UniProtKB/TrEMBL annotation:
Lineage: Eukaryota, Fungi, Dikarya, Basidiomycota, Agaricomycotina
Annotated protein name in UniProt: Uncharacterized protein
Length: 255
């Protein structure tokens, strides 16, 4: 139901949707928040988020600068992305903002990225998350120091790539000392709101999430342990060549 509603927000029939749902579903729709800030309050999401204005043309993201006051941000008015074409490099210059009826200016296509520090602060206060994160690296380092032969690989920290990976200081990643070193995988899940009966390229919503590879497989992908980093503005028929614009703000938090 939520996916279908998301599709209707960009549909010409978006203002006449009550006939598509049952009476109980229409009651739910009436209680749904109409703004991003109200939606976050509904979910109790009081953490920090990074706001971006996505270019409607090239999908380049421009980070908002917070201004004094509540929920006030400054965005560039035009896209400054440099695009390589047949005739050389040119600046996109597409408009990023639109004027609201209350005299405020908002991004035409907003992009919200969750805060990695907020996620880590929350999860590392969980004893299971903390201990499994520590034990994974410590066990891998211990097996190297004892010369234990690795006959099989059952988790990521038994793989040579992580066991042999070194940081900028030349030390093994798994030699964490008094710190906590975390390794994450990044995923992009595409949800087709038109069901899976359609073949070929279709519209979809895209969710970017990250999983702590130190966690046991039984809890690795549980919602409470996943870093749900962002939902790519959609729906889109294809993001070919544009994915990097949405992934970069997520990756930059890990650097």
């Amino acid at each position: 139901m939520c996916i279908k509603l998301g599709m209707l927000t960009v549909s010409s029939t978006g203002s006449h949707v009550s006939h598509l749902f049952s009476a109980s579903q229409n009651n739910i729709i009436k209680d749904m928040p109409s703004t991003l800030s109200n939606a976050l309050k509904k979910f109790g999401a009081n953490g920090h988020f990074n706001l971006y204005a996505t270019c409607p043309s090239c999908s380049c993201n421009h980070k908002a600068l917070p201004l004094p006051g509540s929920n006030l941000f400054d965005y560039p008015s035009q896209c400054t992305n440099e695009i390589v074409g047949k005739h050389g490099v040119s600046m996109c210059r597409s408009e990023l903002l639109m004027h609201q009826c209350n005299s405020t200016v908002q991004p035409i296509k907003p992009y919200l990225v969750s805060s990695l520090p907020d996620y880590l602060t929350h999860c590392l206060s969980n004893e299971t998350y903390l201990q499994q994160s520590i034990n994974a690296t410590d066990s891998a380092l211990q097996s190297i120091r004892t010369g234990e032969e690795q006959l099989s690989v059952w988790d990521m920290f038994e793989a040579d790539f992580i066991r042999e990976f070194k940081g900028s200081d030349g030390k093994l990643f798994i030699d964490q000392g008094d710190k906590i070193h975390l390794a994450f995988s990044i995923h992009m899940d595409l949800f087709n709101p038109n069901s899976v009966t359609q073949c070929g390229t279709t519209q979809s919503f895209n969710v970017i999430s990250c999983a702590n590879l130190a966690l046991d497989s039984s809890i690795l992908y549980l919602p409470e342990y996943l870093f749900v980093a962002a939902i790519i503005p959609g729906p889109n028929e294809s993001l070919a060549g544009k994915i990097d614009h949405f992934v970069c703000p997520v990756i930059e938090q890990f650097v």
